[in-house]
Design brief:
By secondary structure, this protein is of the alpha/beta class. It folds into two domains: 122 residues, Rhodanese-like domain (Oxidized Rhodanese, domain 1, 3-Layer(aba) Sandwich), CATH 3.40.250.10; 109 residues, Rhodanese-like domain (Oxidized Rhodanese, domain 1). Its EC number is 2.8.1.2.
Amino acid sequence: MSNFVSAAELHDLLSDPSVRVIDVRWSLDRPDGHGEYLSGHVPGAVFVPLHTELATHGDAAEGRHPLPSVEKLQAAARRWGVTQGNTVIAYDDSKGLGAARAWWLLRQAGVDVRVLDGGIRAWKAAGFELATDDVVVEEGDVVLEQIGEDAISIDEAAAFPESGILLDVRAAERYRGETEPYDPVAGHIPSALNVPMAAHLDADGKILDADTLRQTFASVGVAPGIPVAAYCGSGVTAAHTALVADEVGIALKVYPGSWSQWSNTPGRPVATGDQPG
């Protein structure tokens, strides 16, 4: 079964009481997308603040978006109205990044979760109704499993290229070290290969066909059965790569601390240029 649903499929599912829809609008320059949510969202969708419910905060050396505890995530999921056996469908307005973070965490926690392909843009393009209320639902009773099995630590990320493939999924100019708008050091983790997240999407922000996805991964040696992990700036974009990889049968771990943790940790080596280094 696909990790994605189309706008038409979601529209048909809205009448199903076992489906919970969440709106995860987020970006680094707009971490609170609540205003955009109120301007128009899928009817019944609950707004989810990524930076407070799908992440926690601490020292800079932990990265910008450390994983929440399972207790914190469970409390959030219950606020969204999730009960045992529900299916959660997540969407956003930023090419699936926020929704993918929700997918990655909830999947580990034992929840049946999907992502709206193309996000709110696809919903609008299909001509479906938008709501402007601030949805509050009855609290759910879901019990989540422990999370973290699909994550790797900073030390594991450093050693990963010795036994597998480590992907840097940021834009190429950040990988090369030509620019770094968020973190104190520019460049990439030595031996990491660059496959920008955008390589998996079409111009409308929808996922490309499976053959194209497999070819993109294969171009850097990634295939089913080969250990692979990914990092980005703060562990959000890399979750999208995990989502895409899973869609084509590739098990991919995420380094949640990502470049924000690596670049804030003294003594970690840095490579620049278009080669792994």
